[in-house]
Amino acid sequence: MIDKALKGDTRYWIWLAFLLGVMTLGGLSYVQQFKYGLGYTGMSRDVSWGVYIAQFTFLVGVAAGGVMLVLPYYLHDFKAFGRITVLGEFMAIAAVSMCLMFILADLGQPARVLNVILHPTPNSMLFWDMIVLNGYLFLNIICGWVILNAEAKEVPPPKWVKPFVYISIPWAISIHTVTAFLYAGLPGRHFWLTAIMAPRFLASAFAAGPALLLICAMAMKKYANFDPGEKAVNKLCTIISYAAIANFFFIGLEFFTAYYSNIPGHMHTLDYLFFGLEGHDNLVPFMRFSMVLGLIATIAIMVPAVRRNDRYLVITCAALFLALWIDKGVGLVLGGFVPNPLEYITEYVPTFGELMITAGIWATGFFILTILYKVALAVDRQIHG
Amino acid sequence: MDIKRRKFLKLAGLSAVAGIGAPSAFNMLLRGEVSASEGKPSGHGGGEGHGAASTTKYRYGIVIDVRKFASIKGLAGKCIKACHTIHNVPNYGNKKDEIKWVWVESYEHAFPEHSQYKRNERLHKLPILTMCNHCDNPPCVRACPTQATFKNKENGIIMMDYHRCIGCRFCMAACPYGARSFNWRNPREKDSQGRYRFLERINPDYPCRMRGVVEKCTLCVERIDRGQIPACVEATGNTGAMIFGDLNDPNSEISRVLRETFTIQRKPAVGTHPSLFYII
Ligand code: SF4
Ligand code: SF4
Ligand code: SF4
To answer: Which residue among B95, B165, B173 places its CB closest to the CB of A189?
Structure first.
């Protein structure tokens, strides 16, 4: 079936060539990092995780977001998602692949990664995260690929895949819950030590994932004559808006707890992110921009006129995606390190090479996504003409 | 709590995670069998504030008398030098690559949660020697996905296996004391004349680390095994600035000092049960 990805117009090949170019630059930068060590990045003793882990965290959310299509389609028999559910599953595959690459890029000794399996350690949340992420990748490959294959042959999907589809639904929740536990269980990191970390992660995931999917679907509608269907688009918008509202509600709760309790440790990081702490305010413009942009986009996506206009819809989804990316893919992880446990402030600025590696991994993810969507599109065309 | 029972509880906890044997662990919780303090009145910190005693045979700790460090000039520097030369700790001369096992901290940074109104001038200037606390309940060990950082079953020391560490730095995020350092680059890098750039000389008796792994104070476990005391403690000579010993032995000097003197630990509220104590 993969041969379907080998036929495409010029635009398709230019896009793939562009991605390959970025992937090459990222790969070359990674060789540098591999030779020098992680000092190649902007990380330090005080800010010991940087953009890699932040991207990883965000992308786990994008992967989990795919379940917002699988669940209505399979559990509630919401037929309108029939054509795009597989897109959700394929997006999960691409996103989890990126997650695994970001983890690998962040390891000081990548060649030893198998130690996690050779010395299994159930008390470590990272161990569980590895299990659920790989499991989720496997589940989505099975569900997405087998079902699409059946569709291509115009036979009903085999019965044995159904249980996998149902397992994949709670599994999607689990990947983001366990990822939240990486942060929410650490003593002495006040900003992360919050019981609503997992729900917050899930809310932002269920907005960001479908938002990205909608952007892809709209792009395919414009360039490849693929119609996701008005009903499906409308439903997705509703899902996105509820999730985004929940996300901002949760952020509000964090603010309340910190500032009403007035406990310094709980206020410090929020101060740093949104107002600046003792003159350190690198992230303030980004965080404020993210908040304003996110709120505007959340309101916009509820407006019927926006939903009906493809261009407005894409802009709105992109704005929301960007806002959530800044909030989680930048502020959440980096903010947790400021101030450090001894209440010093060290700011982190990623290096150029680090950003190239990051771009390279994103490009790899989009490469996988493009190929998978191309196949899905070809099958879709074969069925729907 | 004896070792067998502790082990069983661990097992029960594990199987609860795995979803088997969950009812039994749950019942024990219901019956209040899983409690931090043994028969003592259970405050939020577990009776004495410190919680249950260690289950290892020995539990080594250090009492640091900060008053002595304040009055004897250069004493802290001597300790740091002793540790860092013996353990081949590189000196990069910049904050980004920095590796340190033991260092001097100011009072407000070492004890950020202790507040004093109109704080005594003396407190501001105190040199607080800080290093790994060899926590009895160590979050770094809990977080490590490979058991590359682990608690020595015999003596409770929190140790590192440099050959197993994958460099994920989860332990650094988990340590509430900033005690851990990462090798951001090759510590054994040489200049054009073949001299080590970041090490004055190499002590062949202690392993050099490779880049990409985490390291920290090991309480000189290699010396303790040989019957010696930690190098930093040794460097304080007979000043009495540092008292090293077995916390499990009621007759040890350190136990006596702890009973007779008012000492504090860093960040007691996070429940790590440090084995380092400070006399301010
Ligand atoms: S001080 Fe930090 S590194 Fe040392 S045992 Fe405690 S948590 Fe672990
Ligand atoms: S960096 Fe090494 S010691 Fe620390 S958690 Fe990861 S594997 Fe364990
Ligand atoms: S106990 Fe040993 S390793 Fe730890 S700081 Fe002292 S000399 Fe260094």
So the answer is: B173
**Would you say B168 and B145 are in contact if contact means Cβ atoms under 8 Å apart?**
yes
- H or E element: which one contains B64? strand B60-65
Q: Which residues pair with B196 in a beta bridge?
A: B190
For chain A, the domains span: 2-384
The response to whether residue B170 sits with its C-beta less than 6 Å from ligand 1 reads no
Q: Which of B11, B136, B149, B169 to mutate to test the interface with A (most CBs of A within 10 A)?
A: B169
CA of B147 to the centre of ligand 2 (A): 8
CA of B231 to the centre of ligand 1 (A): 19
The fold of A2-384 is Formate dehydrogenase/DMSO reductase fold (1.20.1630)
- Nearest beta carbon to residue A113 from set B166, B170, B185: B166
Residue with tokens 């079936």: A1
Q: Which residue of B has its CA nearest to A345?
A: B109
| CA torsion angle A299 A305 A310 A313 (round to 10) | 0
Question: Is this prediction's ipTM beyond 0.90?
Answer: yes
Domains of chain B: 58-113+120-279 (3.30.70.20)
Per-residue pLDDT of chain A (385 residues; tens, 9 = 90+): 778 888 888 999 999 999 999 999 999 999 999 999 999 999 999 999 999 999 999 999 999 998 999 999 999 999 999 889 999 999 999 999 999 999 999 999 999 999 999 999 999 999 999 999 999 999 999 999 898 988 888 888 899 999 999 999 999 999 999 999 999 999 989 999 999 999 999 999 999 999 999 999 999 999 888 889 999 999 999 999 999 999 999 999 999 999 999 999 999 999 999 999 999 999 999 999 999 999 999 999 999 999 999 999 999 999 999 999 999 999 999 999 999 999 999 999 999 999 999 999 999 999 999 999 999 999 988 887 6
Q: What are phi and psi of A241, to 5 degrees?
A: -65, -40
